[in-house]
């Protein structure tokens, strides 16, 4: 479950960078 937290963070950063 700890793998989902960082995965969402990376996705959020990617969307924010866009």
Task: Give a short overview.
The protein has one helix at 4-17. The chain has 18 residues and is mainly alpha-helical. The chain is rod-shaped and about 25 Å long.
Describe this structure in words.
- With 18 residues, the protein is mainly alpha-helical.
- The radius of gyration is 8 Å and the shape is rod-shaped.
- It starts with a helix and ends with a helix.
Question: Mind sketching the topology for me?
Answer:
Blueprint lengths: L3 H14 L1
**What gross morphology would you assign?**
rod-shaped
Helix content: over 70%
Structural class by sheet pairing and helices? mainly alpha
How much of the sequence is in beta strands? under 5%
Q: What's the end-to-end separation, in Å?
A: 27 Å
Gyration radius, rounded = 8 Å
Low-pLDDT segments: none
Order of helices and strands: H
Instruction: Kindly report the average pLDDT value.
Output: 75
Number of strands: 0
Put simply, the count of helices is 1
Tell me the major beta sheet: none
Task: Give me some keywords for this one.
single chain, 18 residues, 0% strand, 1 helix, mainly alpha, rod-shaped
